[in-house]
Amino acid sequence: MNLIQWGESKIKRMTFWDMGLVKVSCILFGLILGAYISSFVRQYTCLFIILFLAGYITVIYRFLIKK
Fold first, then answer.
1. Are 46 and 53 in contact (CB under 8 A)?
2. How many domains does the chain have?
3. Domain check: are 17 and 43 in the same one?
4. Residue range 5-61, pLDDT digits in tens
5. 61 and 44, same domain (yes or no)
6. Fewer CB near the last or first residue (10 Å), C or N of the chain?
7. CA 37: distance to chain centroid?
8. Are both 4 and 29 inside the same structural domain?
9. 9 plus 25 within the same structural domain
């Protein structure tokens, strides 16, 4: 079993609440990290927005449109 199959088997066993907790934890980690590098983030705001939109559009395409 490779790493991807192992991860998929673990994800399939997660509940709705587990996924919510993962998302909240990632958001909190991002807030803490952002507090320490805020001047760096302000310099490259446009780049981060472009990267965010590219990632978001890709996720929406894979989950909603592509079958």
1. no
2. 2
3. no
4. 887 888 788 788 888 888 888 888 888 888 788 887 788 888 888 988 898 888 778
5. yes
6. C
7. 19
8. yes
9. yes
Q: Over 70: is that where the pLDDT of 66 sits?
A: no
Same domain, 42 and 30: no
Q: Structure tokens of 12?
A: 């399939």
30 & 45 share domain: no
Distance between CA atoms of residues 10 and 1, nearest Å: 12
The CA distance from 15 to 67, in Å, is 23
Contact (Cβ atoms closer than 8 angstroms) between residue 48 and residue 41: yes
> What DSSP assignment string belongs to 4-26?
HHHHHHHHHT--HHHHHHHHHHH
* CA angle 48–38–27, rounded 5-degree value: 70
B/e letters for 41-62, b = 16+ CB within 10 Å, e = fewer, are: eeeeeeeeeeeeeeeeeeeeee
